[in-house]
Amino acid sequence: MLVATDLDGTLVPIDSFTIPDYTANVLRDVDAAGIPVVFITGRPLRWVEPLREHVGEHGIAIVSNGALTYDLHENRIERIRGIKPEIGLAIARDIVAALPSVQLAIEFPDGIRLTPSFEQDFPMAGAPCGELDALWSEPAIKLLAKDPAVDHDVLRDSVLAAVGDRATATWSMPGLIEISARGITKANALAALCKQRGIDAADVVAFGDMPNDIPMLTWAGTAYAMANAHDSVLAVADHIAPSCQEEGVAHTLAALALG
Predict the structure, then answer these.
(1) Domain total for the chain?
(2) Which burial class, exposed, middle or buried, applies to 38 when counting CB atoms under 10 A from its CB (0-12, 13-18, 19+)?
(3) PANTHER family from the xrefs (predicted)?
(4) What digits encode the pLDDT tens for the residues 113-144?
């Protein structure tokens, strides 16, 4: 068995950046039982590093919706799939044409780079700021788009139309669209990791709560949506776990793997 779990709204309670004590204890027990638990999240790498003590002996986290697989123990990138500048800049121009007030930023392994209008919810001190064509000279792991002037559905539909089949767009929180290289999803990265380790999809148990988790949940042999999950996630899951506020992943794992 391998356990793949999203973080925010799944393993980590809403409006928190830390893992509760009961959940941390269960993760340690599951790891001690020889069952790897892989964190697979839309978070950038810098927001996962504080959780390194919880990833177990394997030390692997998949971040930025599958764009980067990282060994937190060895501080080493295992796999990276980025958006090439020429593709990303063309996509960005089309997004701006559709949404003139859109705010854009790009994520790299070493941090975020901002256009002047982009408002950070969690500011990174010293983040480079400028026009995209001056900031984007190497593959980026994610392009971010937000526009407070329009509602989420308009933002989502406009960005998806602008992106087309040149990249993969998804979302994990209202008001922000996350764009990865074409074909990159949590499922894509998880499948690559499992193939490397000789683990079949049928032996993977996955937990998630938002639309960016859907590819992972439909790929895994057993899929749990959190009780607090988005309706689209609830619709594809095999099972419903208690909410993240109730530490539903931990209670489910305790019954599945430790009971």
Answers:
(1) 2
(2) buried
(3) HAD SUPERFAMILY HYDROLASE-LIKE, TYPE 3 (PTHR10000:SF8), PHOSPHOSERINE PHOSPHATASE (PTHR10000)
(4) 999 999 887 777 889 999 999 999 999 999 99
